[in-house]
Amino acid sequence: MGQSGFGTEFCKKNGWNHLYVGHTPRSRYQSLSFERFQDCVFPVLEGRDVITYGPSAGGYAALYFGGAVDARILAASPRNTYHPIRTNAWAWEDGEQPESSDGRFRHRARLKDLPRSSHAPTILYDPRDGRDSALVKRWALPAYPDAKLMHVPNSGHRSLDYLSRIGSLSYFVRSFVEQTPIDPERLLAPKGTIERALQDGATAYEAQDYDRAAVLLGADISELRTRGLLDVYLSAVALSKNPSAAVRIKGWCDAELLSAKDLRPWARRDLEKVLGAAAVEC
């Protein structure tokens, strides 16, 4: 485990005091209990404006430990692959604590069972990333229904890396720390770009505006494949009233750019809805 973590140098550069809490490879913070964390850091942090933050497992930890020090919480793409939410063990009754099938998860499984921070957390993630979205909706929101959710469509599990790529990471973090309003537009690609159209299309799909999604996601098939949006586009067209998109998809089949046998079962069903009997020729 290193002596510094994500954002350490940025904090130093901005004159912010910084306490790094890391985890050994593949531990996912399971060797650190809520009580141990609180005992170690609370005497140092009492009376201060405290922020817990991190991406991925660090985002999980920011949420899990944030209540111990009444922190303002910034969690990016929070994930813990040991958490029983990923298994059938999540279907237990209130008051019960599931056991991890492999013994790797040792934290309390429900965030709402821990002392919560008085501050509503900010959670940055891609709502189409299944694992991150599940942790946010089923674990974080029951504890913090007032959480501020900030979406970065099509960023996958690397929402902060995406903000860095478009030059908005420093703006986002500094705005959060200094408690100035965050402009959602600064978290997206510039308007008029293909990338922005695909982001808006994914957002429209999540909002069940399938007609708009079918139009905005109408990029080249190679672009859709690269960004993991081909299934979404097929679904949007199947659920929309967009005959021109159906003609376009049929053209992909005729040009042998799209084959039903290469699609996942649900995407194949959407293709059948779009093309009808012609789908068997695709």
Output the strand order for the largest sheet. Answer: 1-2-3-4
Per DSSP, the total helix count is 12
Low-confidence stretches: none
Which range best describes the helical content: under 10%, 10-25%, 25-40%, 40-55%, 55-70% or over 70%?
A: 40-55%
The largest pleated sheet is described as: 4 strands, parallel
- Helix and strand sequence: HHEHEEHEHHHHHHHH
Q: Judging from the principal axes of the Cα atoms, what is the shape?
A: elongated
**CATH topology of the largest domain, which one?**
Rossmann fold
Mean pLDDT, all residues: 90
Per CATH, the architecture of the largest domain is 3-Layer(aba) Sandwich
Output the radius of gyration: 22 Å
How many domains make up the coordinates? 2
Features:
single chain; 282 residues; alpha/beta; Rossmann fold; four-stranded parallel beta sheet
Question: What's the gist of this structure?
Answer:
This protein has 282 residues and is an alpha/beta fold. It has twelve helices and four strands.
3D architecture notes:
This protein is α/β, with parallel strands linked by helices. It is built from 12 helices and 4 strands; from the N terminus they run ααβαββαβαααααααα. Helix 7 (194-206) packs antiparallel against helix 8, helix 8 (210-216) crosses helix 10 and helix 10 crosses helix 12. Helix content is 42%, strand content 6%. The protein starts with 7 loop residues before the first helix and ends in a 7-residue tail after the last helix. The protein folds into 2 domains: 8-187, Rossmann fold (3-Layer(aba) Sandwich), CATH 3.40.50; 194-281, no CATH class.
